[in-house]
Design a protein that fits this description.
The chain is mainly β. The chain has no helices and 11 strands. Helices cover 0% and strands 53% of the residues. The strands form 2 sheets. Strands 2, 4, 5, 6, 9, 10 and 11 form a 7-stranded mixed β-sheet that branches. Strands 1-3-8-7 form a 4-stranded antiparallel β-sheet, with no helix packed on it. It is globular and about 40 Å long.
Amino acid sequence: QVQLVESGGGLVQAGGSLRLSCAASGQVSFNYRMGWFRQAPGKEREFVGSIRWSGINLEYADSVKGRFTISRDIPKNTMYLQMNNLKPEDTAVYYCAARVGAQEYNYWGQGTQVTVSS
């Protein structure tokens, strides 16, 4: 069983940066994949990016490539989402999630709000 808690959201102007954190409790092993998703008002949840806990196989949505970076700190059991050059269209609730191997994501955090003003 893994529990996930996001933090680091807030209000930022366009062009600014934020770093989100996803703290995991419970045993996260190297066969886990951790992901970031977001959901804007009135829109479906969309994939932002993911990383295998081993640190390989980074993936990003085209909309955030070159601006967002995912990393993780194994001793702290924490995943990060560094968001640079933020745009108003990045405004959403951001969720972290975890899955084992190729299964569906079945562990989710509560979400953290990111608002980018123009």
